[in-house]
Amino acid sequence: MAALAVISQIVSCNGDTAPESEVIEDPVLPPGNTGEEAEAPTITLEEDYILLYPASASIPSVVSFAVQDLDEDGEITVSAPECLSASLSFERTDGKGIVTVMAREEFSLSAVLTIRAANGESATEAEVEVDEVYVMPQMLTFAFCPEGGARKVLVDANVPWKAASSYGWLSVDEVSEEGIVFSVRENTSDYPRYGEVIVSDAEGHIPIGIYVEQLAPERETEIVGERAALEEIY
User: Fold this and answer.
1) For 226-230, which contacts have Cβ atoms below 8 Å and span 24 or more sequence positions?
2) Whether residue 125 has pLDDT greater than 90
3) Which of the listed residues 24, 93, 210, 215 has the most CB atoms within 10 Å of its CB?
4) Strand partners, 119
5) Distance between CA atoms of 205 and 199, rounded to whole angstroms?
6) What's the pLDDT at 37?
7) What whole-number distance in Å separates Cα of residue 225 and Cα of residue 218?
8) DSSP annotation string for the chain
9) Mind listing the pLDDT tens digit for each residue in 4-52?
10) pLDDT tens digits for 204-216?
11) Distance between CA atoms of residues 150 and 172, nearest Å
12) Residue in 142, 144, 141 with CA at minimum distance from that of residue 215
């Protein structure tokens, strides 16, 4: 920093003034203080949008990021709403880090977490949008007559998904981007029967059942009583 020049005035005996320069040496600054505000670091996100499984699945998602121009005593922090659990790991040697995110029971639909990098008072923030993974059939209950038949169900999802049935009389015949087509064989027994088509994400972490019931021949009106009797037997 250049020396500071201060102009003082000296009053002569006759009342005239003449300028005189007085040189003041550089002021002494506290250790570590250059007198200039530190520049804010920069944050680069590998992804600013992630999908997160609901708390019941207990599956984390990861946000990767890098920080440039972080001072030796600079700080990296992450903040998240109460519906999310977020833990931070950062390596100063290469300036790279990850945030591991888990959903709590309160998490629903979407939330935002914030990564902050600071050199003193100069800071940069980067936001990551977090959306809940969902796979949702538009109808969850179907009833069939004894002769059987087929139904189409639309499925709304934001991840790849699959559908299957473990019942011999209930089969999944078609799976497409829009939904599924499943069919029920004729019921020739004396009792109604019940089954499920399971729709889930591709890994099977969030299964949802489509409930299917089929009446017995000539006993269609007795479905409620028959079901209660079977529950008592089994």
Assistant:
1) 226/191, 226/192, 227/192, 227/194, 230/191, 230/192
2) yes
3) 210
4) 122
5) 10
6) 72
7) 14
8) -PPEEEEEEEE-TTS-EEEEEEEEPPPPPPTT--SSPPPPPEEEES-SEEEE--GGG---EEEEEEEES--TT-EEEEE--TTEEEEEEEETTTTEEEEEEEE-TT--SEEEEEEEEEETTEEEEEEEEEEE--EEES--EEEE-TT-EEEEEEEEESS-EEEEE--TTEEEEEE-SSEEEEEE----SSS-EEEEEEEEETTSSS-EEEEEEEPPTT-GGGHHHHHHHHHHH-
9) 333 334 343 444 544 454 444 545 545 555 556 789 999 999 999 999 9
10) 999 999 999 999 9
11) 10
12) 144
Q: Tokens in use for 9?
A: 């005035």
For residue 173, what are its two tokens?
A: 């015949």
Per the structure block, which two tokens stand in for 224? Answer: 């409620």
Kindly give, in sequence order, each residue whose CB lies less than 8 Å from that of residue 168, ignoring residues fewer than 6 positions away: 185
Tokens representing residue 217 in the block: 């021949």
